[in-house]
Amino acid sequence: MSRPEDLLPPDLFYNDTESSKYTTSSRIQKIQISMTHRALSLLSLSSPSLILDIGCGSGLSGEILSTPSAEDNPGGPHTWIGMDISASMLSIALQRSVEGDLFLADMGQGLPFRAGTFDAAISISAIQWLCNAESSDVSVQGRLSRFFNGLYASLRRGGRAVCQFYPKNDEQRGMIEAAAVRAGFGAGVLEDDPGTKNSKLFLVLTVGGGDVTGDITGVVRGMDGVDVVDGRKRVRDRDRKRGEERKGSKKWIMRKKDQMERKGKVVKASSKYTGRKRRTAF
What we know:
The protein has about 280 residues and is α/β, with parallel strands linked by helices. It contains ten helices and eight strands. The chain has helices spanning about 10-15, 15-25, 25-45, 60-65, 85-95, 140-155, 170-180, 215-220, 230-240, 250-260, and strands at about 50-55, 80-85, 100-105, 120-125, 155-165, 185-190, 200-205, 225-230. The chain has an eight-stranded mixed β-sheet, with helices on both faces. Helix 6 (about 140-155) packs across helix 7. The longest helix is centred in the first third of the chain and has 18 residues, at about 25-45. The protein is globular.
């Protein structure tokens, strides 16, 4: 069975017909409710909070965020803002009179919010779409970078985000994980029911400061049926192998330029003068 991401861009795939089928399917509703409750349990919110719902679709997750506090929605009801690239999905959300504010936006172009706006963020079955570049002049690394950098900036210190996603393969999973780490998050991937067809992946992200530690493994320690993979270990190992590297040296500058290019940013061409110290001018 073909993945939706392989067929069309999300704004075209989720047209009026597909959006209606998605919203009215009892099977999808059940799965969406289950994953949203799981994401809320990982957010560990103790009081009403302002939450960003990324890829909110027709508001199925948002309805759960709006419900009063209960065992499966701790701290509620929450105030939420939803963003989605599909106008058809948002139209259905408006018809259903969901309580959250909605806006049409492409998460791959970044998140246009003030720094520290949100207490938390969730995303259900959406961020894997970032790994699809629709044209040769669009960089997957650039889209991932803009999204995670924008998300990091929009969360308050000590905030947390939980993104459930379906990577196509281990390469996509690694790209998403690495982009989150580069943006500054404490990040890890949780896998519920590993090795089964019901396996679900949750990317748990924390912003330093507040009462949240950077290591997300502490969040899920002791939970049953959860496989924890800390994506930062590979980065730490890579940094150890790189050894000491003086800031401002040619090697350091070349590495930084290479990183910027992989993020899809415009970088000036290197020359024999790159990294060379200039004489002080009087």
